[in-house]
Amino acid sequence: MFEQYNKMQKAVLETTLNLIIEKELQATSMSLIAKESRVSTGNIYHYFSSKEDIINELYKAIVLFNGDFVTKSLKEAATLQERFQQAWRNVIELGKQYPNGFRFIEQYSFSPYIYEQSKLEAYKGGWCGPMEQLYREAVEEGLFVSLDPHMMVQMHYGSFVYLLKSHQQNMLELTEDVAEQAIRFCWNSVSRG
């Protein structure tokens, strides 16, 4: 998830993510990050000016990774419906394979710790923008009802978030069959036919 960073940056980001999931953001101090990552405080400050900078870099890195993960293999799908299905399958797989990244994004996307510029960069580089374009194409081709593509993506994402949260809390087994039913339901909820 943090392959583009050097060894120290990667250690700091991975450690921060794990600490935030374990202990929450307020309980994650720079000294704890340094201790757990085995990177000196001085080296941390060489790469990041503050805890907020670490959090924002973590946010951007996860969102960009998620964007690559969700949009992979979409070009291989022939039809809009196949691209739609593949993208949501990828969202589900992402949440299952990288639960800490999923939890971080869900918990802190609207946090005041995340700078507006980070949110903007993440939106453009993540998967929401490409999904919005896919929905826009479906509306233009008459496959979907004429609703705001951004709103439709967010409504459908909310459905998958709750499925993934239920899965992570062992309240629902998110099998392939359940995932396909949810994807079909989302398609049908905005489909014209």
From TrEMBL:
<dbReference type="InterPro" id="IPR050109">
    <property type="entry name" value="HTH-type_TetR-like_transc_reg"/>
</dbReference>
<dbReference type="InterPro" id="IPR054422">
    <property type="entry name" value="TetR-like_HI_0893_C"/>
</dbReference>
<dbReference type="InterPro" id="IPR009057">
    <property type="entry name" value="Homeodomain-like_sf"/>
</dbReference>
<dbReference type="Pfam" id="PF22604">
    <property type="entry name" value="TetR_HI_0893_C"/>
</dbReference>
<dbReference type="Pfam" id="PF00440">
    <property type="entry name" value="TetR_N"/>
</dbReference>
<dbReference type="GO" id="GO:0000976">
    <property type="term" value="F:transcription cis-regulatory region binding"/>
</dbReference>
<feature type="domain" description="HTH tetR-type">
    <location>
        <begin position="6"/>
        <end position="66"/>
    </location>
</feature>
<keyword id="KW-0238">DNA-binding</keyword>
<dbReference type="GO" id="GO:0003700">
    <property type="term" value="F:DNA-binding transcription factor activity"/>
</dbReference>
<feature type="DNA-binding region" description="H-T-H motif">
    <location>
        <begin position="29"/>
        <end position="48"/>
    </location>
</feature>
<dbReference type="InterPro" id="IPR036271">
    <property type="entry name" value="Tet_transcr_reg_TetR-rel_C_sf"/>
</dbReference>
<protein>
    <submittedName>
        <fullName>TetR/AcrR family transcriptional regulator</fullName>
    </submittedName>
</protein>
<dbReference type="InterPro" id="IPR001647">
    <property type="entry name" value="HTH_TetR"/>
</dbReference>
